[in-house]
Amino acid sequence: MPISRKATASLLIATCLLAGCSSANDDAGDSGAAPTGDYTVWDPYPQFDDSSDWVKLLSQCGTDAGVTVKRTGYDTTDLTNKALLAAQQGNSPDVLIVDNPVVSTLADAGVLTTTDEVKVDTAAVSPNLLAAGQIGGKTYGIPIGANTLALYYNKEVLDKAGVDPAAIKDWAGLTAALDKVKASGKKGITFSAIGTEEGSFQFLPWFWGSGANLTQLDSAQGVAALTLWTDWLKNGLAPNSVLNNTQTTSWQEFATGDFAFSENGTWQLANAKKTGFEYGIIPIPSQAGGVAPAPTGGEFVTAPIQDDTARYAVTEKLVNCLTNADNAFTTDTTLSYIAATEAVQTKQVAENPELTVWVDAVKAAKGRTSDDLGTKYPKISQPLWTGFQAALSGSANPQDALTTAQTTAAAATK
Amino acid sequence: MTHDVLTRVPAETTVGTRAPKKQRNWAAWAFLAPVVVYLIAFYAYPLYRNLDLSLRDYTVRSFVRGDAPFSGLDNYREVFADATFWPALLHTLAFTFVSIAFQFAIGLALAVFFAQSFRLSATLRALFLVPWLLPLIVSASTWTWMLNSDSGIVNTALAAVNIDPVNWLTSPDWALTSVIIANIWIGIPFNLVVLYSGLQAIPAEVYEAAALDGATSWQRFWRITFPLLRPVSAITLLLGLVYTLKVFDIIWIMTKGGPADASMTFATWSYRLSFGNLLPEFGPGAAVGNLLIIMALIFGLLYIRIQRRQAQ
To answer: Pairing between strand A259-265 and A187-190?
Structure first.
């Protein structure tokens, strides 16, 4: 008898461990009955813990709306599939903060509400940033902030080579500068041309900067952009390791102090101060001159569809709280992002003049899923990265590589 | 295994009297239940789901709604027609067989070497286990650094002896070789340990007798060690095959299957289809995964067949 009782007890414990028994100590505060007690928020910022400004802001927004916010930070690459699975199981979070090119995928899956359903005012948001979340005339979220790419330069290396970064306005000027740097014994430029979305993200400023369009990868302009990259590698102006570089490893190369330029994002600003050498930033030039459109990075605040539509009232408060001018300023400073609205951008520049070049870059930037590409974009991006990898590794010339890419992309988006 | 238990229990109960039979049956089922539940929940259902995924036309929308239309073998046709298919198949086979051949040969050589106990042999043997103890992400990342085209230690060493640098991970001619080298290094300890324990089971008298008959050490290896080690070798090779077929982490960390698919295998391809893109393609991804399972199954059946023939 005592044995069986012990067994029952241990079985119970085991079941509890597996199924997650909740006993008397449910969350304090709300007495349970109302489903409005807990609101879940998923974000792709696992680097922030409960003591961070970001999580404090989330809790504050919850308190203001009279609810408790339960927040989980996921790795950004995991979040798409997590969100899809949650939607399949019918337990989507109330607020989902997700990378901007994913918004169209989730919207296509019927997972997200539009900004009309959950009343979110997007009027102040810059149209070029909002476009990434718009499909078929509907808007599926609001950007929390944006980041994009520009060229960091090492002042010392450029001085030694006799290059004035401010004079670089087009591709020819940049290549000439790289040649001078190489002649002075230093290395030219590093970027990330890895065979993933990250590589496509880094290639797009050059691709778009030539005037090429994602619907025609093998246009003369597209080939010109890829030839620019390929020639840099061929002439030793960029290292061969770019083929395997993520943006982080490419940054590490730049941080050694040997490189003149690094194509990298707003998020490296904090690290740039730690490098120990003087740095500066110029926008990525386009082929003919002027600022090239770089792809926008950064997340959208979205509201996944719930069975209980009564929840939207609180969700609306949460979304608006996270994206209103004051909080957006705090959040974007924490995340090292540029704000999505003109007003907050002005405030950011006033506070930190260093951000001017980034604000300009963000204004010229373009969403990858914009131009109503939506879910077609991923099917174009993959052939594109396979294409530039083929050309850079020397297994095909730029023209052939992009012709193959276009054939694959056209078949996939048909 | 469950099959064994199921058939044996009733056979035994027929001997007993009528009343306890039912009870014993219940007890048998109760004991069996955890295993059955476990097998169904963690093996049968996922396999079924994977098969189901590969036979339906999934878009993100139908994935969420669960109403993907049945599309027969369309996903498989799509996978077979994909330009990545033949290169990926070739890479998978090359990766698997070259890895296994080297892992087994080196592992066996080391096992024979360490079988003759000498001073420090235990310490040295322990050192060979290091690749096994390291998390794959650590060893693969270290290989990535070492093989870096511009700042890697391997190219620096080559430069010291006046050999031109090799683009290990970024050249289409070398990427597959590089991941194979890393995988061989990681797989040696497993072969060493299993084969070493197999060697311990060979009775010393056989060697003594051979030595008395004047057999050279070469003859002793080929006439005694190798044949007597055959059952252990067979299982080592089979486990190695199944394990190497599905190797994913090393390749993904070192090259992401690139440059331009030059080191893409079925495992990395399946991952890229299902998770490595902004827009998941679960159907084709599951189809490639199933092809991998079928390949492993063929090798498994081959092993059983060889084992049967040996037993007869």
So the answer is: parallel
